[in-house]
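R.M. (postdoc): so does anyone remember the format we settled on? I'll just put the structure tokens first.
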């Protein structure tokens, strides 16, 4: 049995392991130039270089440091809402971002219980999307574990949060559910200046939802600012776009 699995056996040792993960394994006290997996945060920070106290919405937040597209913004003084289907992710955020709204939930168009295909408490690929699960189960999901999570609508989460008006940056990384979640967010109300969403596979090929996502966002005034790895950044103003 691995050291991690031993520590996950009780609530007390689980708490110890959370601090180990943050302060020993990921050395969160050390400032880094980049936290995103593919360097997306470098483009995001450049876009918001003159804004030191904005608001983010991070859906599929996973980890406050590892692969995070919002960590650089947080370190600049930003705050916001972090949402994930994995309670461990939210526990990590509660330790190091206690002033944010950190919510364990799946976002769905109606409130219901959803099955979670669960790889690991510290895995970035836990998902409610069966097709996504099937595409990765040869590489991940070795234990074939499933859990249930209570879904909430995007409106329900946003209405209960501290955020009442503008959201400056929206990040969606929901393992196959990105477009479905995007459609639930009232972009006319929150008027995010920049939006990050996965649109490509790791090999550079477009996902089946890319054209839908692009058309949907262009109809609402968003245009491609940059593509970094599997992520596309869309800016609200076409004049900010590098892909006009």
């Amino acid at each position: 049995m691995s050291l991690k699995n031993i520590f996950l056996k009780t609530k007390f040792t689980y708490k110890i392991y959370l601090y180990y993960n943050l302060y020993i394994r990921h050395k969160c006290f050390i400032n880094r130039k980049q936290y995103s997996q593919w360097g997306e945060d470098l483009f995001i920070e450049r876009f918001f270089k003159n804004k030191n106290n904005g608001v983010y919405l991070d859906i599929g937040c996973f980890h406050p440091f590892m692969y995070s597209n919002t960590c650089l913004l947080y370190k600049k003084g930003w705050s916001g809402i972090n949402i994930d289907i994995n309670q461990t992710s939210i526990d990590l955020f509660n330790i190091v971002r206690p002033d944010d709204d950190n919510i364990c939930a799946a976002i769905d168009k109606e409130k219901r219980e959803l099955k979670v295909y669960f790889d690991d408490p510290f895995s970035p690929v836990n998902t409610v999307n069966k097709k996504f699960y099937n595409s990765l189960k040869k590489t991940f999901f070795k234990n074939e574990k499933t859990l249930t999570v209570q879904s909430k609508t995007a409106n329900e989460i946003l209405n209960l949060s501290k955020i009442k008006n503008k959201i400056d940056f929206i990040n969606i990384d929901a393992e196959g559910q990105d477009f479905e979640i995007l459609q639930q967010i009232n972009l006319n109300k929150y008027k995010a200046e920049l939006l990050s969403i996965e649109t490509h596979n790791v090999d550079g090929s477009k996902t089946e939802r890319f054209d839908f996502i692009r058309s949907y966002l262009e109809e609402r005034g968003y245009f491609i600012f940059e593509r970094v790895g599997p992520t596309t950044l869309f800016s609200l103003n076409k004049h900010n776009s590098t892909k006009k």
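R.M.: ...and that's the designed sequence above, right after the tokens. Also worth knowing: Strands lie at 55-59, 79-84, 101-104, 106-107, 113-118, 145-152, 169-172, 194-198, 223-228, 231-235. The mean pLDDT is 90.
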